[in-house]
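chain below, 146 aa
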Amino acid sequence: MNRSQSTFIRMTVSYLRRMVHVADIYTHISKVIRDLREKKGLSQEALAAAISEPSNTVSRWETETYRPSAEQLEKLARFFKVSITAFFPGMEKLSDVPAALASATRGLKKDDLEEVIRYAEFRKARSALKQAKAKPKAKGERDGNK
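prediction:
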């Protein structure tokens, strides 16, 4: 997990603490972990092994004995192929685009990341140009009498 992702998670938790009691957040997180695990048909031990955690850790998360760290939540999100926001109440519906972009660009060198940003800006500009060309012209513009 890079610094910006960790910061995002910490800020999200901080924001949610103001909206929802902390205990409610961890109750929600434990339910989401259980639901995702059961949906995939995994035992607690199998999930723990899949994400390289001690075998009793998942049980302790699900019973709220332990609280998963930001890094552990990221491992779970990657394993279940969900956005990390899925673990936080009220944020489940947020777009997965930022998470997908962060995941896709993780580990890129600065030059490569800048190239990705330039390409995204190029695509955005090209799309805007296509939309502008597709707009029907006003009657006076078609005749050349703008």
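The chain has eight helices and no strands. The chain has a mean pLDDT of 81.
thats it, cya
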